[in-house]
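batch_manifest entry 22 of 60
target: Myosin IXb
source organism: Gadus morhua
requested by: lab member K.T.
priority: normal
notes from requester: please return tokens only, no post-processing; we will run our own comparison against the previous entry in this batch. if the run fails, retry once and flag.
--- input ---
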Amino acid sequence: MSSLQGAQTSGPGDHPSHVIQIYPRLKQVTAQCLTLQVTAAQTTAAVIQHAVATLGIDTQRSYSLLELKESDGEETVLEDGEHPVNRYFLWPPETHRWHPKSKGYYFILQPLLQEGEAWLEELVEDYDDLCRLPELSEDALLQTLRKRFYKKKIYTYASSILVAVNPFKFLPCYYNPKYVMMYENQPLGKLSPHIFAVANVAYHAMLNRRLDQCIVISGESGSGKTESSSYLVHCLTALSQKRYASGVVRTLLGAGPVLEAFGNATTAQNNNSSRFGKFVQLNYLESGVIRGAIIEKYLLEKSRLVCRDTSERNYHVFYYLLIGASKEERKEFSLLQPQEYNYLQQEDLSIEGEEKLRHEYKRLHQAMEMVGFLASTKKLIFSILSAILYLGNVTYTVSEEGEVIKVGPDDVLSTLSDLLKVKQELLVNALTQRRAVVSNDTLVLPYMLKEATTARDSMAKSLYSALFDWIVLHINHTLLNRRDMEESVSCLSIGILDIFGFENFQTNSFEQFCINYTNEKLHHYFSQYVFNRQQEEYLSEGISWSTIAYGDNEGVINMFSKKPTGFFHLLDEESNLPQATDGTLLDKLKQHHKDNPLFVGTAVMEPAFVIQHFAGRVKYQIKDFRVKNTDHMRPDVVLLLRGSERAFLRQLVCSSPAALFRWGVLRATIRITAAFRALARRGAQTGRPTRPSGPQGAWEIPLGGFQEEPLEVPASACPLVYARFTGIHKLMDSHSLKHIVALTVNGRTSQLVLHPHQRKKPPSISAQFQASLCNLLDSVGKAEPFFIRCIRSNAEKREMYFDEALVLHQIKYSGMLEMVRIQKAGFGAKYTFEEFVKKFWVLMPKGAAATSEDITKLFQNMGVDQSTYQMGKTKVFLKESQRQRLQETLNKEVMRSVVILQRWFRCCLIRMHFLNKKDAALLIQVYRPREPHSVSGRVASEEHSHCLLLPLYWLTSIPKDLLKGYHNKVNRLASPHRLSEVTLVVNLFQSMLDGFIRGLVKQEEAEPVKVGDRQMENPLDHMFSTYQVNIMQSCDLCGSYIWGMEKAYMCSACKLICHKKCLAKIITDCLTRCARKDSSTSGSLHFGVDVSVLSSPAQPVPQVLEMLLVYVEMNGLDTEGIYRKSGSACRARELHQILETNPETASLENYPIHTITGLVKRWLRELPEPLMTFNLYNDFLHAAELPEKSERIRAIYQKVDELPESNYSTLERLIFHLVKVAKEEVHNRMTASSLAIVFAPCIMRSPDADDPFLGMKDVNKTTQCVEVLIMEQFRRYTEKMQNIKELEYAETLAIHQLQLKSSEYICVCVCVCACVCGASREDLACTLPDLEQETSDDNLDNQWSVSSDSLGSDRLGSLDSEGQ
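--- output ---
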């Protein structure tokens, strides 16, 4: 750059000139920056001309000047008449003098595209797979990632490998819950790149191949690995076939925040850096249902607790506790301000975002409850955290000889002993002196100042590490499924490896030494799997392949671990020598590795050494390597803590959790026995039974020295205690505890207890770490891996800023270019010949065998490019694009065959129906009626005057039993020589009914629509439902986050998501938001949508509900337990998916009746607002409480009349259906009372969803309310049936008289008309109004007497007669 600064003036009257930097984006220009002097009067065209002349490039081409701003990340093209300096003045002041790329504000010069010319920068931005780039280079990869990053597309594929760039910002558009379902069952690459796509592919690969899967997340510190692992866990639990939040899912979702609080901290590179490694293994049944999980932790960074770099912080949980604790908690745990603790002090300790820390503290409480921590356990954990902080405030007063004289301050020691429940004298001894065993004699030796400080810090680190181990153990025990301990139960699993990233700090010590060694091993595993194994398989199969070279880091791994000169081996040797120091260790390392090019020595006086890692050189400070490698729990500390009055502290330092558990059960048994004996003595002394004195009916008995607080025993357990006492051993579940300890045995603090009388020392930290790392890699090696490469976008942790130099460095050392090359040149899919033929046999010609010739013939027939596949000796190799093409072709062929089968079946079915109708028409043509109008019209009018007009939806179909009953009646009435005409009469009756129904349908559609005047209770017609947030989301109204464990409100129609407090801020109604959405995604749902959306004047009852109810009435009314028994969950999910998207195509006859009835209840339960709405809920309850039956019925019907129009119509249809079910009580065993019990929770729900117990209290009232509706409608139905019986008697007399006076033919017609009410009178009463004779010329009375049997009896008109 030029040395010019600020603004300069060229002369009097001239405009002042300013210095700007322009970054050319030109292939032929190698200069990174061009510095120009530009005045405010110069336009863009003049600046471009000046820049082109200065660079000496082609002046015949056209160029454009672009402005890039950090705020939006987009490039703005400046018009020719604009003034660049005016844009320059709008930038932040610190960018005016110089504006490098790192500050995010600068100008870019690039050529304009000519016709037929392709500019790489414009082409690469549309590629979501790096393997599709036309030209592969590191710069092309960099520019592709940069373009996508500034478009907020942080995920990119490299074939099957996902590349994720950390934006240091939460992007709610990526992690909406709907994305989980959107990527389900979608192949990799079909939709835009996403981490949910990788989880979905791994999940279905596990189910289809019956093999364990593993997702390996790698990247340096600050690249976003922890967030990626939490998203994977959320998606994999959601993909489990059981959609409800089971205990395992709830514990897994709560374990993440707990482990992050206790194991993550703020570092110079990452605000939420994992200071431990973890491997989460999710166990599934073969059906895909999650059944358990295991979390393994590796190498917690204990030294961070007592010392850190000045720019870093301690673990998150300390700040959560100190900022978020209430006044009562601060007093109980004796908490101080963060600045008052030595373990938290740093140069620039400023607690920012206190409100966020308070929220995280509440979130931690909720997560601990989800994991299973009781309130008392949480208090014990927080008291230990407070004690650890107080340990850092312990100070020493030394004598001239350096020996400790006094430890203090006294108030700190007093508080510390109270928090740990140990005697202050024993605490002082443990902090100031140590025990040594010499010739079977125990000596007490005082500490020197440095030794005392080390002992104090060692006690704090051991206590925190033991606490962290206990939390992991407790979480694993909660996640344990007992069937995991049985070898007979088959188990599939998906592992998620979230290990610490590569680190290179200003001061690198033993922790960074182990962390970087782990990254070397993972990088070696990745290289071997992606490069070595794949290329070896190509060569062994004999296909044409050019070997691609890749970087191998095996030399670095051998330098670390190979015996006898490996770093870890030499470290263990020096750690076991009493006279060794860090200096002797450094000398030995230099001596053995001085000729190794990967080991770089330092100056003689500098206590450090340098290692050339795959990611670059790292300098390690040798200080405290030996101490950290043998950082065992001191025996004096163990003795002190085991003498604590708190059983929880004794549990932390125990060597065997299972043994401690057994002793705990035994102690509890003794205490219970003593408690009840004391209770018996008290009763014997007083001469009367002892009453419970504790809260909520509990016996409160002081146990003296047994425990700190009185023991509370439920009073209801007293009579059964001694009866059950003999079976108390069943509570001892040490078997499961042993199983968990065996699975997570590596790295536990209890293994590092240094006993004074034990000759053999426990294994070193490095030895345990190597063993656990080998076990981890063995587990990963047995599974099919998926890889996610995380990239850190910048080193300053700035939101949405892309540092090209840093990203390019990561691309180079990770070998991403070679990875993309082998993925592009290689073959993503491979099958053995047998597997290929078995999978694609539908596409293969008849008689094809599993040979390369037949498979090649298939490819030739399909026109597959020869460069996209190769035939090996035993396998066929395909590009991923061709595999997807084959799969799509297979799906189309299968669907074509299915359509052909359906076509033939429908053809045969329609042909059969046609022939039946043809025969019926021929019979009707033969039949000639002789003046039937007078008699039939008179009978019809007589029936008409007494018939009941029922709702239209009762006539949607003619019941089969009606026609069957009519046929039987005609058979009985017909004379023997007229039996041949029975079929003719039945067909005539059916056609007459069909015509009548068509007329009513037309009449109903022609009626004017009644518009209700009621408004929805939700704001602006939105239909909100609440759900608990698992992954942080963004509020659509205020823009702030909806944190995990909070409740969010989502509109079921327009999918608006917001806080509860933001409901009052809504200004856009639901219909407007729905209109803005894509038409392809709106209006396609039938479950979980408000009734008002699904209904219309032409269709008052929602389509799906009407379909289900009609089918049940036609086929299932006589099924025993029709609504009490549940159907198959698998079939229900299948039918639900069809009805949700396209109900017209559903074939209900293919499903069991209990599956249909289960979906009826599910449809009602999933309504955002129940049929009997929230705002009338309390009114219905008050009505059900009325003592008089008549008043109760009147009040309930009044509230039913206040329902919205759509809710009223749907409820009316449902009650009518339940009456029909109750009518068949003899067969289905479903009384009105049992139906009310089943349907009351479905159509009446408490508006207070936060308090489930409130809804449980109202169960009796809601059931009674629904039962009143069913019983009242049933009573009306019975009255109508009685009226029909009376009419039948009168009709029989009339028919008898007509038979005496009329001809034989007329008698038959009269019998036919009489059977309309007689043959199946019950079904006519429930399904048909009075019939109109379309062929009659007579106007029968013009107006019929109408008697409505609707739910409200004309809403208000019949209230006076109800309940009588």
